[in-house]
Design a protein that fits this description.
single chain; alpha/beta; Rossmann fold; Dihydrodipicolinate Reductase, domain 2; 2 domains; 17 strands; 29% helix; binds nicotinamide-adenine-dinucleotide
């Protein structure tokens, strides 16, 4: 099958693993060019992987590029994606698809009207960890699931990112930055969300860049969004979940001593592994209180960013459905935007844009995913 040719826009931190996986691993995609508003960033990635770099305008006009992989910052996602669609390219975008519902709806509408594809990160729910959880839950390992609790408690990105300011601006914060992992995992396991209500706090009005390698280390910058947000949601299947997300802790999230996501069922509970990763462990507690670790039954357990893009490329060539699709991304974006709004006004929001539960991946897929 002819590979789908990819042009990357946004050559920052996360672009390296995407390009590496698309270049060395996934069999049905090929990165042919990259661009960035800061041209030296594109030049660096192009030299590292051996393809051309271009200005954003050149890449959008490049006839070889079929899909734009949009790895810009959240506030730019929907604008860059819309420019790509209007240039006749399909798009796979980093999360969230859009930072307001109307922009997301406009994107999806335009793509559907023009026969173009839109896909969205995160694709961690396609990893071996979450796919195995889904299979075990569908098999009834904890009986009938009725509730879930999720926690993302961490120090802020000013501790590891060279340019952490965007994480505290409108369109980011723990809700729009980390929330996508949690909400997409919940929706991939239990289906769409019916309604949400939240409360949020902003303990600090400014932060300081602590990343030692950043040229801006020591600089203070403002915080625009709530950084401790707790949300209560109900799903169309009548399950409920509490999701609490915070950048106000004094340790990294993996030291938080809280479950990432615990699902409660009529016959036991399941601790779902790190939602930002693709691996295990999966721990199940039965109704006698005994805890068992279940082996993973699916592959793709290391950093497999780009799986969702490869899955979309397969859909483009073979006319099948893809999992991290436009409806899924729009639903997640609407839930996140409403959690953020509710964190400020404490109102209840009913979710309007719905999606299907993404189809389970087949077991024993080859390491290259698709040829
Ligand atoms: N860094 C991570 O660990 C991580 C993990 C998962 C997802 N993400 C997501 O990936 C995206 C990018 O994150 P990052 O860490 O690579 O950020 P980054 O700041 O390192 O890189 C973003 C790049 O996009 C470029 N850019 C910004 N606006 C642009 C525009 N309009 N046109 C062209 N280029 C533009 C910037 O110049 C920069 O080089 C974000 O949405 C982030 O949430 C990041």
């Amino acid at each position: 099958m002819k590979k789908v040719k990819i042009g990357v826009i946004g050559c920052g931190m996360i672009s390296e693993i995407y390009i590496k996986n698309c270049t060395e691993r996934f069999g049905n995609v090929e990165v042919v060019a990259c661009a960035d508003i800061y041209l030296p960033a594109a030049e660096k990635r192009a030299a590292q992987f051996g393809f051309r770099y271009e200005t954003v305008e050149e890449l959008l006009a490049d006839p070889e590029v079929e899909v734009v992989l949009n790895l810009t910052i959240p506030s730019e996602h929907s604008k860059v994606s819309m420019r790509a669609l209007k240039a006749g390219k399909s798009v796979y975008t980093e999360k969230p698809m859009a930072i307001d519902k109307a922009a997301g709806e406009e994107l999806v509408k335009y793509a559907k009207e023009h026969g173009l594809f839109v896909g969205n990160a995160p694709d961690c729910f396609l990893g071996g960890g979450l796919q195995t959880c889904r299979k075990l839950l569908d098999e009834g390992i904890i009986g009938k699931p009725f509730a879930a609790q999720a926690f993302m408690f961490t120090c802020g990105p000013e501790w590891f990112h060279p340019n952490p300011e965007f994480f505290y601006q409108e369109g980011a914060g723990p809700v729009l930055d980390w929330g996508p992992y949690y909400i997409s995992a919940l929706v991939a396991l239990f289906g769409p969300v019916k309604k949400i209500v939240s409360m949020g706090k902003k303990p600090k009005d400014s932060r300081v860049i602590m990343t030692a390698t950043s040229p801006k280390v020591g600089q203070e910058f403002p915080v625009e969004v709530p950084t401790y947000v707790s949300s209560l949601m109900e799903f169309d299947n009548n399950m409920m979940a509490n999701v609490t997300l915070s950048f106000d802790m004094h340790y990294p999230y993996w030291e938080a001593d809280m479950p990432f996501l615990r699902v409660y069922g009529t016959e036991g509970s399941m601790d779902v592994p790190d939602l930002n990763k693709y691996e295990g462990p999966i721990l199940v507690r039965n109704n006698k209180g005994e805890v068992t670790e279940y082996p993973l039954q699916f592959g793709f357990t290391e950093n497999s960013r780009g799986m969702g893009l490869s899955d979309m490329a397969n859909a483009m060539r073979n006319g099948v459905t893809y999992r991290a699709n436009a409806d899924f991304g729009l639903h997640i974006a609407e839930v996140l935007c409403d959690i953020q709004k509710s964190a400020v006004d404490s109102k209840e929001y009913v979710i309007e844009n719905k999606c299907e539960i993404p189809e389970q991946l087949p077991m024993n897929l080859p390491d290259c995913l698709y040829q």
